[in-house]
Amino acid sequence: MGKLSAQQNSIEDFNGLAQHTGHSASLGIRERAISTYAFFLYFTGAQTGPIFYAYPVRFLVVTGSIGIVASVFLFSVSKGLPPNVSIIAVTPKVNAFLELYQYLLSFGVLGGISASLLFNPSISAVGHWFYRKRALATGVACTAGGIGGVVFPLIILYIAPRLGFGWALRIVSLVNVAAGITTSCLLRKRLPPNKKAGASVDFKSLSEPRFASTALATFLIEFAVFISYTYICSHAIHAGLDRRTAYLSNVLLNTGAVPGRALPGYIADRFGSFNTMCITALACVATILALWYTAGTNTAQVISFAPLFGFWSGAAISLTPVCIGQVCRTEDYGKRSGTAFFLASFGTLIGVPIAGVILEKNNGSYNGLIIFAGVLYLAALVAFIVARGLSTGWRLTVLF
Questions:
Q1: What is the average per-residue pLDDT within 351-375?
Q2: Which residues, in sequence order, are CB contacts of 217 under 8 Å at separation 6+?
Q3: What distance in Å separates the CA atoms of residue 377 and residue 367, rounded to the nearest whole number?
Q4: How far apart are the first and last CA of the chain?
Q5: Which residues fall within 8 angstroms of residue 161, CB to CB, at 6 or more apart?
């Protein structure tokens, strides 16, 4: 199961890979590939729900494993046309377009869909086996995302200079093969197949205020979290760090994410998922606006932001499914979760490109982008507070 959650960190991995291979100047390629990946990760999750309930989980896991291996391999051979190709006039713009569509198809589309076939069934399977400790179990499963986000970039960092970028990615692909086989053998769901489960998107559920506010909070927090994940490396370079150190800031972010995804689950089982989510969202607002925004060219401040934000933002991945489960009946969880993440997928699709436009309009200054991310997190915090209030009242002492 660890491998499944790790696929989500391909978003951060791709960001670091772009820095390592010299694509950092072309932010548009990264933005579109990352936002496309994140979109399909959540959008496809809404479609896989009925399949998960109707068929053995191995059907999704094997398909997703094959797809993610193919995605990484195809990404390793993605490139523009050589200048001696006579079919078309190869210009820098043409090559940039060719690279973009190859990255979009291999990483964004195939990678996002395949990761969704792995990630979403694994999280759903956790819900089958755990009730009282569901938040902790989900958090532990999601720690693999941080572990993968540490291991995969380090493979690239140390293998690429020796064997080349393509072969480094192919080694990552081999790791995926081994993990996929292991997962296919181990992952099981508790409940028998139910081919009458129906669709995983139910827009009528949005008429219920407490679910609608939770869905809005999920939309906003997923909108916000990928902005910081995407731009942390390029901001470090902008602040004056060398490329190697900037690339390692992504590793530090994921190092912080390992306890940041497990510990909130442990706390949530004791003090409430919404209470924990509100605290972590508030900490993210403070970390972004008080630390990242004021960092400037202060190397220590730039580097320290990565693990701190990785820690506090971990709940955005591990606790949102648990929060959704708290505002609906167990038998409705599949549809409610599918609806919430279906809507959140559009936030991930537009969030990173909008941040890129803000960066461009500010002539390369990251201040506007950072404020944008902080305000989105603040809005998500307000939405979680409203959802909590509508569910249990407005007393601070309520454990929810």
A1: 93
A2: 277, 323, 380, 383, 384, 386, 387
A3: 16
A4: 28
A5: none
Distance of CA 167 to the CA centre of its chain: 25
Write the single-letter amino acid at 182. Answer: T
Residues 64 and 120 sit within 8 Å (Cβ to Cβ): no
Contact call for residues 124 and 4 (beta carbons, < 8 A): no
Cite the DSSP H helix spans in 243-298.
Answer: 243-271, 273-286
Backbone angles phi, psi at 200, to 5 degrees: -100, 5
Which residue in 3, 2, 11 sits closest to 174, CA to CA?
Answer: 3
Which distant-in-sequence residues (6+ apart) come within 8 Å of 265 by Cβ?
135, 136, 137, 138, 139, 140, 318, 319, 322
Q: Which residues contact 345 (CB under 8 A, 6 or more apart)?
A: 38, 39, 40, 41, 42, 43, 45, 46
Sign of CA dihedral 291, 365, 260, 212: positive
Amino acid occupying residue 330: T
- Which pair of structure tokens corresponds to residue 372? 């944008």
- All domains of the chain in start order, with CATH: 2-188+199-392 (1.20.1250.20)
How much is the pLDDT for 199?
60
Nearest-10 crossing angle of helices 367-392, 209-238: 160
Q: What is the DSSP string of 319-371?
A: THHHHHHHTS-GGGHHHHHHHHHHHHHHHHHHHHHHHHHHHHHTTT-SHHHHH
pLDDT in tens, 170-212: 898 888 888 888 888 888 777 777 666 656 788 888 999 999 9
Using the structure block, give the residue that is written with the tokens 């461009």: 360
